[in-house]
Design goal:
Elements: E1 6-19, E2 32-38, E3 41-45, E4 56-65, E5 71-83, E6 86-96, H1 97-101, E7 107-113, E8 126-135, E9 138-141, E10 146-149, E11 152-162, E12 183-184, E13 187-188, E14 192-199, E15 209-210, E16 221-231, E17 244-252, E18 258-267, E19 277-282, H2 289-306, H3 345-351, H4 353-360, E20 365-377, H5 384-392, H6 397-402, H7 404-411, H8 415-428, H9 432-446, H10 459-471, H11 473-490, H12 507-533, H13 541-557, H14 567-586, H15 600-617, H16 634-651, E21 675-682, E22 684-685, E23 688-689, E24 696-703, E25 707-712, E26 715-721, E27 725-731, H17 733-736, E28 741-746, E29 754-759, H18 763-777, E30 786-787, E31 792-793, E32 796-797, E33 811-812, H19 826-849, H20 858-864, H21 872-909
Antiparallel strand pairs: 1-4, 1-20, 2-3, 2-5, 5-6, 7-20, 8-11, 8-19, 9-10, 11-16, 12-13, 14-15, 14-17, 17-18, 21-24, 21-29, 22-23, 24-25, 25-26, 27-28, 28-29, 30-33, 31-32
């Protein structure tokens, strides 16, 4: 049966903290920040931690990885220190796919030592190769006068390249010392040339072959030049599967010197015999064997501590990668190994051992938390039976205790991951409110100690948390950002802990300072409470409905005990104040309330305000005698508890009943590319910018099923239909002296090409919008093949210097979306995650519910113990046991259904 799946790879990465950074430079204070690069492309930048060798970032990212991803690098840089090569790089950590595959699904948290790095690699571009592993049959062996089977051969066809850096763009070019006849309208381009060889492990002899040189271009085309490499037979009559193809691209200067453009490494074991595979391969920097070896050692150490082996056994090794020629270029082919094409990978790693130990000693380290996932995700229809089982858990209270979700709780390895997946799936099905209602109702009914209601890490608690993060972030920003901005700007001292005041002050001075500081703290807390109290209308209706339902269930559960009626408020404030607002104050950068981390004084103020908010969320109750210094604001807290109760009453005053229905029949997928937010739009008129300098204005953007719209003060200012979008690409920073820009090119029968230029605030936001725009646009048969990475300014393009504003682009575009047949939605990915949980836990479920010999008739057992006559107590016990038996039987039935579902999916994706 043919497989039809998309390989999905992602990594959850937490950049925690650093230690001893900058020590090798002899600097007691550095301003460190980190960037994350996948292959050669920057995808994430942390905030800067100022004046410290021991920074704390605490930033978490979920990074989707392209199919051809080869390495993920974390660079640590000093923002305010520069040398001749640019910003000083304090060191780097390199994670490669091979090592992460061996720990797939495991969470690893470890200090990773930094390795030396002189600069951040800036290699970019892609190379299209067609590869064919071939056997030529029998030929004559003239040296021995007999026939034998000839060696295998690999035929490499070099087709074209795109996205290469020009000499002007590449800061590594030799400062203008080289002659530059390779110029297009005054701009130095490149003379690309490809060299390649095949190397077998343990052999030193190499046969290098070289392509022709393409002049004056960043999009060279070699007209399908092909090269043949013979592969010697091994002792078993086959070709040696350690053979690796090394491809290097260089720019040939006019004085004979060369500029490195990038390299590609392809293990030939990934090829099938007599099958041609054409794909785009990303170019990579020269590999740093020292960094690879050090990072691998750190990972191995972490795994040893966790009881996980790093080596991949033959039975657990990943399947050979399947190439897809219909996928997006950055996700077309697998490259899992890398190295200098003149040197064996193994030799390089072994020879770097001593260097790594001595070089890393003073580099410092960064604490990372990593979880890597790689799966073969099927089209959504393959998960319909699993989806039906999950939705069936909402068919009444009994179904929730015996259905698929209940069994998922028995086997899940990570509550947060499962909760996130469930919320995404049920949001898509427009059933998230019934899901949360059902989970919460079950927990409220089963609670033994009311004071601990929703205070643990149950699936219900985690699900409500994830629901708030997915639906209420805009509400959070609208409510809290103004107050957070004022705390950052005003920097009023709010310290009320005597132990944290300056040393050496007398008691009177301390008391006076605490009085002033507590007044400042009350001021900020009052502003925050004002903002929250007036935010009812801004809160999403679905959130208000969930909170209303929580209140109703608490009132039902404790209607006979007035001592616990206050829980109707605590059940709401526990989620909104303690699990949402307070964490956002403690980590404003993570929650989008600030572009930078706060300094120490500001962070302390935010912590104290968060403590007050937590006490208000607990309706003024403080745990024991902890933090007695907070008594300075006790009066403020007591006086404002009534305001919190009033706010919650208004928040949950939602009209209309909440329907507990199952809409599984209405299997409608929501548009996964929906997004809204603010971007900076370049002001243009008739295709050129207004004014001598580029001007950007803030606009609100919204993506829906049919169009991208942007607004000025609530009024629509522009709209671009999905069918008109022909290209979406990044923009060179030099084009408009602005980083993190995106261009959307649109065209229709009535108008020539129109280009919308927008700028994001950072690289993280840029990549989020780029992905959303491309998903929104889908596949357009009129998509452009070329684009200009620069802008048209001063009567010429900044990239290629052409003067015609309508000139064809000088760089090749990336297809907007992959083949729609193989395109999977976010719901498919989440369903696959739950499938893996069930598949891994199925043996446990079968053992618990299908192989349980204790499922006998309770009444017979009870009767036999009482001489054939049931006493009242025995009858009651029998009834309880019978009820438990019915639950077990229903769970057993669900397990049997899951067995069928798991087996059906496994035949397409293989065993987990």
């Amino acid at each position: 049966m043919a497989r039809r799946f998309n390989k999905e790879a992602s990594v959850h990465l937490r950049i925690g903290e650093g230690k001893n950074l900058g020590e090798r430079f002899g600097s007691p204070k550095v301003d460190p920040y980190c960037i994350i690069k996948v292959n050669h492309e920057e995808v994430v930048r942390t905030a800067t931690a100022w004046k410290t060798q021991f920074p704390f970032w605490g930033e978490e990212y979920d990074v989707s990885l392209p199919l051809d991803w080869k390495e993920l690098s974390i660079y640590c840089l000093d923002q305010t220190t520069f040398d001749s090569k640019g910003t000083v790089v304090l060191g780097k950590i390199t994670l490669n796919r091979k090592n992460l595959l061996s720990v797939r699904g495991h969470t690893i948290e470890q200090w990773y030592p930094l390795s030396p790095a002189d600069r951040v690699d800036d290699v970019r571009g892609e190379l299209y190769l067609d590869l064919r592993l071939h056997h030529r049959g029998f030929v004559s062996d003239r040296t021995k006068g007999k026939s034998r089977e000839s060696p295998y051969e690999v035929v490499v066809t070099v087709v074209e390249a795109r996205g290469l850096p020009s000499r002007d763009d590449d800061k590594r070019a030799a400062s203008g010392n080289h002659a530059a006849s390779s110029v297009a309208n005054g701009r130095v381009l490149a003379n690309p040339c490809v060299r390649m060889c095949v190397q077998v492990e343990g052999e030193t002899s190499l046969v290098e072959q070289t392509s022709t040189v393409c002049l004056n271009t960043l999009c060279p085309n070699w007209n399908s030049s092909y090269f043949t490499f013979e592969l010697a037979e091994n002792d078993f009559g086959s070709w040696d599967d350690s053979a690796t193809l090394f491809v290097t691209m260089v720019d040939v200067m006019d004085d004979g010197q060369e500029r490195f453009l990038g390299e590609v490494t392809i293990p030939l074991i990934e090829l099938d015999l007599d099958r041609s595979v054409g794909a785009w391969y990303s170019l990579f920097p020269r590999q740093d064997a020292v960094s690879m070896a050090v990072t691998a050692a750190a990972t191995a150490s972490a795994l040893d501590g966790a009881g996980v082996g790093l080596a991949i056994s033959p039975t657990s090794a990943p399947r050979p990668f399947t190439f897809s020629t219909t996928a997006e270029p950055s996700t077309r082919a697998s490259i899992s190994l890398s190295g200098d094409y003149r040197t064996s990978i193994i030799q390089r790693t072994e020879s770097s051992g001593q260097t790594s130990q001595s070089s890393v000693a003073k580099m410092g380290a960064i604490r990372l938390k990593i979880k890597y996932e790689e799966d073969d995700v099927l089209p959504i229809s393959h998960y319909d039976p699993l989806l039906k089982l999950l939705l069936g858990s909402l068919n009444g209270p009994e179904a929730l205790t015996t259905g698929a979700i209940a069994l998922l709780e028995d086997v899940m390895s990570d509550r947060e991951d499962v909760a996130r997946a469930l919320i995404k799936i049920f949001l898509d099905q427009e059933l998230v409110t019934p899901l949360l209602n059902a989970l919460a109702s079950r927990e409220i009914k089963s609670i033994v100690q009311p004071t601990t209601l929703f205070r643990g890490s149950s699936l219900a608690s985690k699900s409500v948390e994830q629901f708030l993060k997915m639906t209420a972030m805009q509400y959070l920003n609208t409510t809290l950002k103004g107050v957070v901005d004022s705390i950052f700007a005003e920097k009023l001292s709010c310290e009320i802990d005597p132990n944290k005041l300056p040393k050496g002050q007398d008691a009177s001075t301390n008391a006076s300072q605490i009085e002033r500081n507590s007044a400042n703290l009350r001021l900020y807390s009052s502003r925050l409470l004002d903002a929250i109290s007036s935010s009812v209308d801004a809160c999403p209706l679905a959130v208000r409905q969930v909170f209303k339902y929580l209140q109703e269930r608490v009132l039902e559960r404790f209607s006979d005990d007035k001592a616990y009626l206050h829980l109707r408020y605590v059940v709401v404030s526990g989620f909104l104040f303690l699990r949402f607002f307070s964490p956002a104050l403690l980590a404003p950068k993570t929650y989008g309330l600030s572009d930078e981390h706060p300094d120490a004084a500001t962070a302390r103020t935010l912590t104290l305000v968060a403590k007050i908010l937590q006490n208000l969320g607990n309706l003024g109750q403080r745990a024991g005698n902890k933090e007695q210094y907070m008594s300075a604001v006790d009066t403020f807290i007591v006086e404002n508890v009534a305001r919190v109760r009033s706010f919650i009453d208004h928040l949950t005053a939602v009209s209309g009943a909440i329907e507990f229905t199952n809409q599984a029949a209405n299997h409608r997928l929501r548009n996964e590319s929906s997004k809204e937010g603010e971007l900076f739009k370049l002001v243009r008129k008739n295709g050129v910018e207004v004014g001598a300098k580029p001007t950007f204005v803030r606009r609100s953007f919204q993506i829906d099923d049919r169009a991208v719209s942007y607004f000025d003060d609530g009024e629509i200012a522009g709209r671009i239909r999905a069918e008109d979008v022909v290209a979406i690409e990044k923009v060179d920073q030099a084009a408009f002296n602005r980083p993190h820009m995106i261009q959307m090119i649109s065209s229709n029968r009535r108008h020539a090409d129109q280009i919308l230029y927008v700028a994001a605030s950072d690289v993280n936001e840029q990549n989020e919008w780029l992905s959303a725009f491309r998903n929104f646009a889908g596949r357009n048969p009129n998509a452009r093949q070329h684009y200009h990475p620069g802008g048209y300014r001063g009567n010429r393009w900044t990239c290629c210097k052409l003067t015609d504003s309508a000139a064809e682009g000088c760089n090749m575009t990336h297809p907007i979306a992959a083949s729609m047949d193989l395109r999977t939605s976010s719901v498919s990915r989440e369903l696959h995650r739950l499938y893996r949980q069930f598949a891994l836990g199925l043996p446990k479920l079968v053992s618990s519910y299908l192989n349980n010999s204790k499922l006998v008739t309770a009444v017979v057992t009870a009767a036999s113990m009482n001489g054939g006559t049931l006493t009242a107590a025995a009858a009651a016990a029998a009834a309880i046991e019978a009820a438990q038996d019915r639950v077990s039987q229903r769970k057993a039935y669900t397990v049997r259904q899951l067995e069928v579902v798991v087996d059906d999916i496994a035949q397409y994706t293989g065993v987990v």
